[in-house]
Fold:
Amino acid sequence: MKVKTGILALVLMICGGTWLSAQDGPNRFTLQKAIDYALENSTAIREAQINIADAEQQIVEQRAFGIPQINGNVGYSYYAIVPQQPLPEAFRDALEQIVPPGEEVPDNAAFFLRNNFNAGLRMDAMVFDPSYFVGLKAARQFKSLVGREYQVARRDVHKAVVEAYLPVLLINQSLEVLDSNIAVLEDLLAETRALYEAGFSEQLDVDRQVLSLNNTRTTRDNFEGRKESALRRLKYTMGYPVDKPLVVDQTLDDLLEYASDQDLNAPVNPMSRPDYQLVQESLEINDLRVKLNRSGYWPSMSAFGTLEQAYQGNTFQDGFWAPASQLGVQLSIPIFDGLEKSAKVQRARLQKEQVEVRERDLYRAIHLEIGVARNNYNTAFETLERERANLDLAERIFETTQIKYREGVGSSVEVTQAEQSLYTAQQNYVQALYDLVLAKQNLDIALRW
Structure:
């Protein structure tokens, strides 16, 4: 009987499960669907979106400084005891000349009535302030900066989902290989027992097969536990409910793609990366911060206007209304502030130097990351080709040793050794396939994200 190897059985199982995979459901996720879901539900993405909305409101807030401000006020007071003030001596002398004989001139007099009501409007408007225009430009630049931060957050989420999704595929493929191997071992154990009962084999041969089968089943149980942990990590990374079922709807073979010559050899372009664009935005923000602090040396001018109505009276029938209106401008000229503005300008320049240092370091880091990603891809590609050849060789050896064992010209030890070599080759192949898929994903992220 020709032995079905692990990889061949795996292919048949994948093909046989095509119809089931096509039954798409809300809990079945391809890698792209998992990334899309995470980009909609990740807390990091939500925080970045809130920051963008906040930056838009900062623009509105900054713009409001240049728009005339109108405020109203209403006030009322009642004097339970009307305050009095002493009369000047010259005023008392004048009163004595007009007061009828016999009447005494008071020493004090009240200049207020009991009821006092006032209402008014005040308008303040900026006429000239150089810091306003620089601040408005800085607010708009800040919104652009926050937009870059959003793109960086998307990149981080994309990378995190890839790193959480692929291990689930690795475990699934390993489980399928183990299931295939268990089926082969069960058939082999049945044949060995039949040979033993017919007197053509020893109990030791049966014991070896039982031990191998038990070890393989134990390994499979361990992989089941690892799969549950990997799925939990994937759910958390996606922002998916932990208590809901989730099924990965792809295999490593589905995601296997080969890099183009452009990806592997084209010159590195850091500006294609959102994190590098973010640093460039930060440099422009710091330039504006320097200009903003330097604009504090310029004079500024504002205008104002008021319109008021005031009422005074001991009652609300015998009083009077007193209208008032005022217009004016105010010029503010900075003269000396204890070197405060100078310190702010210097600090802004130092902050810009810090960003320039980070920009140079990031430039080198991007070149390093892409170089490492390309090297890892090339290494993974070569390893997969080598492991594929090793797997083919291990399959032939395993089949040959089984044929020899059935014909009585081979030993069970040879079968066990060939069996272990086949399992190792299968594991190495699946791991190499995983490494190449991951290397390709990391290369794409390094180049385009």
